[in-house]
Amino acid sequence: MNLGVLISGRGSNLNAVLSAIESGDLPARVALVISNKPDAAGLLRAHEAGVPTRVIPHGGHPDRASFDAALVAALREASVDLVVLAGFMRLLTSTFLDAFPNRVVNIHPALLPAFPGVDAQAQALSYGARVTGCSVHFVDAGTDTGPVIAQAAVPVLDGDDRAALAARILPREHELLVRALRWIAEGKVSVIPAADTEARATVRVRGERTFFGLEEPSVPR
Ligand code: GRF
Known about the structure:
Layout: E1 2-7, H1 12-22, E2 29-35, H2 42-48, E3 53-55, H3 64-77, E4 82-85, H4 94-97, E5 104-108, H5 120-127, E6 131-138, E7 148-155, H6 162-185, E8 189-192, E9 202-205, E10 211-212
Parallel strand pairs: 1-2, 1-4, 2-3, 4-5, 7-10
Antiparallel strand pairs: 5-6, 6-7, 8-9
Helix pairs in contact: 1-6
């Protein structure tokens, strides 16, 4: 499975994918990393791993569709089968999604459909949610609305600020993303199309548990 990973920043999820490949835990290769930001730290990790990178700044394109067409061209040139959005901060248009139908996966730091969009950790905190987590899902035309592959729950603790909560969710993201990619590589994941226009597409994962519970935190009393 040839992965194309799209990033905009730190790249800790990209790092988790590369580390899993390096340790033999993920039967895949990263064929290309694309960043829309030239200074994304994740690019350095890709260089270290000897993975080809491209910087495609969104600002250099007159509209979203032409930016997406440039992404698609680069991914096709690298023979990418599956695209991973790992902290990629741009919404994709149908130009992109039609080129990779059910072949774009995103990691989101909340239990969808709760808290879609930007800064899901801050949304969970300001809502007063007691449980949040992360979701890996296929990407559709909406914002974080595509069918869920797997989810992991994470507690919100008294006194959490955004950074503390994000730091508790992040390692669970890394674990969940790698698992979901492994299942896809193993051919265990199918998208069940929506039965009618009212319904949603869903995902079935053969022989795997797709939910992960709250890790018991050591809470000071
Ligand atoms: C992660 O929290 C991911 O869920 C969200 O953006 C963040 C990216 O972090 N979509 P990183 O660049 O992978 O470290």
